[in-house]
Structures are given as structure tokens and as C-alpha cells.
Amino acid sequence: MINRYLIEAGGLDIHDGDVIGIAVETTCRFHRSLAFPDIVNAGLRVGKLGTSSVRYEIGLFRGDDAEAAATGHFVHVFVTRATQRPTPIPERTRAALERLQVG
Prior knowledge:
By secondary structure, the chain is mostly beta strands. It has one domain (2-98): Roll (Thiol Ester Dehydrase, Chain A), CATH 3.10.129. It has helices at residues 2-8, 91-98; strands spanning 19-30, 40-49, 53-62, 70-80. Strand 2 (40-49) and strand 3 (53-62) form a beta hairpin. The longest helix has 8 residues, at 91-98. The chain is elongated.
């Protein structure tokens, strides 16, 4: 979901670009069960946007439930492909991420 957004809205070239994002941390907290045939809605937002990293916050909801069945986060660090060292998030990608940022 987020990779497609970064490619389409942020201009990230995951195959040939000089800068790529690497998922360096993931967390998921279980709150209640989800099971077939439940309809599951997912929410994603940018909780923190740094110079070379972004923390996404996610929630999984059963149907129209207001309380999440699971919550979590993951972190992308943007690196230069050649060196695998952190690099500033490209401007177009940063602008796309800012649109997902909350408060």
C-alpha cells in the first residue's frame, strides 16, 4: 500500500532509483480477533517525518468498528542504493509523505 503511494505520488523508483526506502522496524499489537468473513479496513498515517526516515502508524479495524483490532507502526529509512547509508528523503517523496502526516 505505502510503496505504491510512494511510487505513484512520491516519484520513488524502487527498481533503478538512487534512493530507496528500507523497512528497519515493525511492530504489531493485537487487541481483538479478526476472522473470515470479517471486512477489514486499514488506516495508515505518517506519525513522524525525519530527515532520512519516516514512521508510519497503522490500524486494522473490523468493518465500521471505532476501536482497532490491531495497531502498529513501521519505519522506512531512505538510503542511497549504492552505499546503503541514510540520505535525505527526496523532495517529491517528502511532499507526498507530508500529505499523510498528522498533527
